[in-house]
Hints:
The chain has helices at 17-28, 40-49, 67-81, 104-132, 143-147, 153-173, 191-194, 198-207, 216-227, and strands spanning 8-12, 32-37, 57-61, 86-89, 135-140, 178-185, 238-241. The chain has 247 residues and is of the alpha/beta class. The model has no long low-confidence stretch (mean pLDDT 97).
Amino acid sequence: MDLLKDRVAIITGGAAGIGMATVGRFLSEGAIVSAWDIDQALGNELLKQFQSYGDNLEFKALDVTDEQAVTETVADIVTRYGRLDILINNAGITRDATLVKMESSAFDQVINVNLKAVYLCGQAAARVMIEQGSGVIINASSVVGLYGNFGQTNYVASKAGVIGMTQVWARELGRKGIRVNAVAPGFIATEMVKKMPEKVIEMMSGKAPLQRLGEPAEVAAVYAFLASDEASFVHGTTISVDGGLIA
Ligand code: NAP
């Protein structure tokens, strides 16, 4: 399949979970992928897993909250490849607690990674994409950003914020040839969800009419569609990938 042939893509949080599945899917669709993640060891495993794609995959050990690193790495990609076609703003964390128990440091951490870093990466990418007159930005939200969730004040605030930011960028960047959308996964079988108590996971998968957790590849498929020309008139929206979850 060649849905993304020769497109240059950054995928943040690309060494685990949904990000890793998206790296694999984008490579299989012919993309040239720069996978960013905080953990070099995970990055080495990623490179090993997808070594058959050769130079089409590189890994950058990078903290997406580090503005200088983000700006420099985007500039370096543009120097080497001549352009940047796709940004998947996927990196994200949870630090759950009920409102009364939440530490403000946990609130700040989650907002920094899930919201501020989406802004930092989005801004760096948009500056390049405006110059070239084309590009696609896709931001990771969550169903909980649409409906709320017990014990996730910080996470829900960040994911609702991502939807708002996506709508702003759609208005600002659409006229410059850049499409912007968000994806709102439901409960997907990754490390992030495995951290939740078994009872909560069972309850959440039971709430989805499809009666199961989603697989990372099922979210990656939607990223691939949205990033491709197949989605050429899809703009400013949030697509749920949640098995029909009823809040
Ligand atoms: P995951 O398995 O935890 O993978 C996220 C990756 O991002 C990890 O490798 C993580 O590294 C990395 N990361 C964290 N902070 C970073 C930073 N500051 N800079 C660079 N990389 C960083 O998560 P996932 O479940 O695949 O989720 C991916 C995205 O989808 C997230 O934005 C998440 O909020 C969203 N989402 C997930 C679900 C779900 O059910 N899984 C549902 C809705 C939305 P560490 O492991 O070292 O933190």
